Amino acid sequence: MSDVNADEWVSSGHRPMGFPEFVVVIASIMALNPLAMDMMLPALPNIGAAFSIPNANHLQLVLSTFLIGFGAGQFIMGPLSDRFGRRPVLLGGMAVYAVASVLAVAAPSFETLLLARALQGLGTSATRVIATSIVRDCYAGRRMASVMSLAMMIFIAVPVIAPSFGQAVLLVTQWRGIFVVLMLYGIIALAWSVWRLPETLPEAERRSLAPADVLSAFRQTVTNRQTIGYATAAGAVMGALFAFVFSAQQVFTGIYHLGHYFPLAFAAIAAGTAVAGFLNSRLVGRLGMRVISHGALSLYAAVSGVMLLTEILGVLPLALFMALSALMMFSFGMMVANFTALAMEPQGHIAGTASSLYGSITTLIGIVVGTAIGQSFDGTLLPFSIGFFLSTLAALAIVLVVEKGRMFKPHHRPIV
Question: What is the pLDDT of residues 402-415, one digit of tens each?
Answer without folding.
Answer: 998 777 776 554 44
